[in-house]
Amino acid sequence: MLALAALLVLGLGARPLLAQERSSRAAELFHRYAPRVVKVEVTETGSAAKAELGSGFFVSAHGHVVTNYHVVSQLVQHPERYQASLIEVAGRSFPVHVLAVDVVHDLAVLESDARPVGHFRLTPVAPEHGARLFALGHPHDLGLSIVEGIYNGLLEHSLYPKIHFTGSINPGMSGGPALDEQGRVVGINVSTAGNQVSFLVPVERAAELVSRALAPDYEAPDDFLPVIAGQLRAYQAEYLDGIFADTTQTVTLGRFRLPTQPAPFFKCWADADRDRDLPYQVVYHECSTDDYVYLSGDQSSGIIEMQHELITSTELSPSRFFSLYSEAFSDGDGMPGSDEDVTPFRCETRNVRTRARTYRAVLCVRGYKKLGGLYDAIVKMAALGTRTSGLMSTLRLSGVSFENVQRVTRRYLESFRWADR
After folding, report:
1. Is residue 409 within 8 Å of residue 379, measured between CB atoms?
2. Which DSSP letter does residue 339 get?
3. pLDDT tens, residue by residue, 147-160
4. Distance between CA 340 and CA 224 in Å, rounded?
């Protein structure tokens, strides 16, 4: 009994001690590494008003800083209208200039005249699942803060790795470092889905960009837009390689066998609308990824989404069903993007016959104004020749070459089959 009582006492005391240890470790890391973390402010030159606020951290003794591309995107896209500065924890401010960008991984390297007392060395780190991490940054411009969370591995539905971090990364912390208990940079704060579901860019991606930017023969371009366009073209070429090939999995909706999960990094789900007050039913099947590439507040790229809809009715006459089906097919499908960034969509409609079936297909394409050779596309098709059931399918592509628009659209349409074939 005495032994049991002693164990109970020790057990009751373990939690406060553990919490105290965690609090102490966070305090130690903050005290040691806070001088290496900076606030990054982007201001509009005409009004001196803050346009963007983020974080960053020193990666050299010569004032080089890593942050997110989205923190300085306005400076990159409109250098004549914006300027940026870093503010050290001691309060000193220095102008910064963009030295290099990796738009696909949402990273940028900045240069400044600051001479920090210390900086981070970026090396690969492989934490165990469940390891504690500590994110540093400036949430909501409230001052430098440290947030504890858990390393939960890499996202599954993403072509390029992102770390799942269960900590609260709030606006303003973007671009700050996430450290392990040894003070090593594991990732770079990049985004959040709320409810302590946040994401980090793995440190390896930042290390590669810093290595290129600090190489003796590297020269920063006068205009980063052609560089960004080249990065997106390389990204979409890899992203779309093999998509909708003959080995693509299929799902059956009604009499149709349709493509699903066109690549391993896609996630798919289904649902149905069976409202008793409606004379028809709709079954949905959708696929997408967790990938997207931030370009500006109005525009993202690197997105692929696919949706199938099977509409059936046992109550409507063929003429009424055709009217319903036609209206559903003609409903507009848009994509975000401002007139400053993209041209208007231009559409072409035609009947397409594949695998002994005829479809009504619409292809809409718009170009990127600042990033040459890149387009957004929406492909929408509907099966013809049905009386009380109809299939519609929509594919959305963003930031792809026109050659890939044509190639992927052709593969997509050819992947539709009858369920009994």
Report:
1. yes
2. T
3. 999 999 998 878 88
4. 17
